[in-house]
Amino acid sequence: MDWLGARIDGPLVVIRAIHFFATAVLAGSLIFGAVVAKPVLRSTDAAMTVVRSQILRTAWTGLAIAAASGAIWFQLQAASMSGLPLGEAMTPDVLLTVLNQTQFGLVSEIRLVLAVILAGCLAYDGLVLSRWLGLASVLGLTATIAWTGHGGSTAGEAGVLHLTADVLHLTAAAAWIGGLVSLAWLLVETRRDPGRASLARNATRRFSTLGIVSVGTLFLTGFVNSWFLVGSFNALLAIEYGRLLTLKIGLFVIMVAFAAINRLWLTPQLVFSPESGPQPNSLRQLTRNSMIEIGLGLAIYGIVGVLGTLHPASHFL
At the N or C end, where does the chain have fewer CB atoms within 10 A? Predict the structure, then answer.
């Protein structure tokens, strides 16, 4: 398939994007539960039960999609590595060779173990130990994606820096973009029960703080990754990889703008009183903006799916 003037494996791009986004939603939901929902809703058992139930449903859905897309990704990658058509590559010899003799195969095995552990933790979510182990497992599941991309192929001490930046980048993206799904669900529930407007305000403020940390991390690690993968400012415009990265940066800036509007303008208006009630327009706009941010995040993961199949711009310098 010829995309953007380069030979692109369309199915591989799509399945990578789906897998990355599903993993981010999975990780983001559990991070949201631990960092935002639990501290904010600790004193309201009824609300916490509803939100926790929704977080679990989101996590199970993300895990199911991540598992299915991960299995398909492995098959497509095996075909790509072997140079065979997909049907001919689906043999025990080819699959076991990729699984046992490549870095991608080793990472896939590790991620499968983490996914199984995570599934057990979600099944026994009522236990405090299960929640913390589940959070650790999902962070590992997210971080190990770094070893499947360009960061995993950089050698030497520079490779350690590149991998570290990639791990932090993936984790921060999951916390923000993935966590937005759980925040949007909480806002929808608040619209059904206006008496919880103050809870939505507190949760949104706390999530905004998480978002600020995530954005700062994404900016710094994105700069490091660009230094390795682009190499020069001119490459951002002259080469397909650079142009796609520029588009990704543009979408990121738009997301930050929406997040700033949510934090500085809409969230302070989420005030409830018996006389005036909540501010329905603010809550509706906040929900809409969160949905827009999720859509932008999905588009960014789509671009990431393409970038991982292209040669970095620095290879052409």
Answer: N
Token pair in block for residue 241: 């990889």
For 184-193, write each residue's pLDDT tens digit. Answer: 998 888 777 7
Contact 227, 268 (CB under 8 A): no
- Alpha-carbon torsion angle 231, 232, 238, 241, nearest 10: 30
Largest CA distance in the chain: 72
For the chain, give every domain's residue range.
2-316
Q: Is the pLDDT reported for residue 297 higher than 60? A: yes
If one counts every other C-beta atom within 10 angstroms of the C-beta of residue 300, the result is 23
| pLDDT tens for each residue of 120-170 | 999 999 899 999 999 999 999 999 999 998 777 776 777 889 999 999 999
Averaged over 203-217, what is the pLDDT? 93
Q: How many CB atoms lie within 10 A of CB 147?
A: 19
In terms of pTM, does the model score above 0.85?
yes
Burial (0-12, 13-18, 19+ Cβ within 10 Å), 52: middle
